[in-house]
Amino acid sequence: MALASVAVLVTTSASYAQDIKLPPTMAVTAYDTGTAGFNIAVAVGKMMKDKYGTDVRVLPAGNDVARLAPLRGGRAGIAWMGSGIYFAQEGVFEFGVKEWGPQALQVTLSSIDCNGGSLGVARDTGVKELKDLRGKRVGFVVGSPALNQNALAIMAFGGLTKTDVKPIEFASYGAMWKGMVNNDVDAAFATTITGPAKEVETSPRGIIWPPLPADDKDGWARVKRVAPFFNPHMATCGAGITPATPVHMSTYPYPVATVYASQAEDQIYAITKAMIVNYDAYKDNAPGAGGLAVKAQTMKWVVPYHAGSVRALKEAGNWSDADQAHNDALFKRQDVLKAAWADYTKAPPTIDKEFLDGWMAARSAALAKAGMPNGFE
Predict the structure, then answer these.
(1) 125, 186 in Cβ contact below 8 A?
(2) Residue 18 confidence (pLDDT)
């Protein structure tokens, strides 16, 4: 998908104007219809239609593989991802198979707002703390390592593993949350502002978000061992949450407007610049969209920014030498993973289970040799 070049017209100390050229049509992928990620994708798409005449088609997909496949195949320009961007970069879980491997994914912009991301629990279960989930039904989504690892990380805060609960598998994120309403499951991972969580809040079951206090160092150490991309956060909005009744919770950037390193710098610059320049046109049109603000960006996360995005962020005055050094280190990590995969797949095992086990060992060895953390001990 080609995008026209971007012509810079004027730059001032206070603001800058751009003659941004976007294509007449663009497809993007996102989480299921009604989720925060889908709604934000729609809000940004409407801005692109209103400002540039671009028809943006948002393709809902129930898992990370389905969200990334159109992007990898060139049928989509952006995949609005969650933490699955990290798992795909690392080549783990569903991405540790012959058809995938480590993906050179990069960030344009991402959102952190008043919402949090954690396990929502049906109020009628009587659960107050995460440790109370022992023996309860916890939702998992087939083909969605992000959602599943997130759930395990939050459970770890309460000292629980998958064997301590009753795992209930669903075909998609949306189906899992329908299961909450229908009393097929007791807890599921989500951002607090997702539509399905609000549906549970207004259902007879109700919803709560067991807290993850930032001062519980042991609890957070357990979280970080499972999901290093999580950080403590005070959630002040979402299902069952208000500024007057905030919850100590967890968060990571979501959704993340994800692209491939191979996508042209000018293309990604134009897309990112359009989101920056026209922020006011969409920030109030979907819960969480306000978190796409330039100053709200998580500058030192676990996946690098694309060169086109870096260019746009620099022009917006939100890029430092320290940010560049961190980004360069992440590029190096992607190179190490790519080389390890190339070496491993020269003569891989033919049995799928042996393939994944062998790759995880090869991956670990390559990262250790490079002096980089594994992240999946």
Answers:
(1) yes
(2) 53
Long-range contacts of the stretch 122-128 (C-beta < 8 A, 24+):
122/180, 122/183, 122/186, 122/187, 122/200, 122/205, 122/206, 122/207, 123/205, 123/206, 123/207, 123/208, 124/204, 124/205, 124/206, 125/186, 125/187, 127/186, 127/187, 127/208, 127/210, 128/208, 128/210
Give 163's contacts (C-beta < 8 A, 6+ positions apart). none
Write out 168-203 in H/E/C secondary structure.
EEECCHHHHHHHHHCCCCCEEEEECCCHHHHHHHCC
Indicate the pTM of the whole model.
0.82
DSSP states of 258-277: EEETTS-HHHHHHHHHHHHH
Measure the CA–CA gap between 262 and 167, rounded to whole angstroms.
38
CA atoms within 13 A on the CB side of 144: 30
Q: Bridge partners of 140?
A: 169
Task: Give the pLDDT confidence score for residue 51 in this predicted structure.
Answer: 96
Give yes or no for a contact between 73 and 263, defined as CB atoms under 8 angstroms apart. Answer: no
Residue 31 near residue 82 (C-beta atoms within 8 A) = yes
Residues 6+ apart with CB under 8 A from 116: 191, 192, 209, 233, 234, 235, 238, 241, 247, 249, 250, 251
Question: Cα(82)–Cα(100) distance, rounded to whole angstroms?
Answer: 18
95 Cβ neighbours under 8 A, 6+ residues apart: 64, 65, 87, 88, 101, 102, 103, 145
Alpha carbon distance 108, 321 (integer Å): 18
Amino acid, single-letter form, for residue 23: P
**Burial degree of 262 (CB within 10 A; 0-12, 13-18, 19+):** exposed
3-class secondary structure per residue, 37-52? HHHHHHHHHHHHHHHH
Q: Beta strand pairing status for 25-30 and 78-81?
A: parallel
Would you give the DSSP letter of residue 68? Answer: H
Single out the residue of 340, 298, 349 nearest to residue 92, CA to CA: 340
- What would the pLDDT profile of 203-247 be if each residue is shown by its tens digit? 999 999 999 999 999 999 999 888 889 999 999 999 999 999 999
| pLDDT recorded at residue 15 | 42
Give the closest residue to 3 by CA, choosing from 60, 52, 68.
52
Residue type, 132: D
What is the predicted pLDDT for the residue at 6? 35
Residues of the chain with pLDDT under 50: 1-17
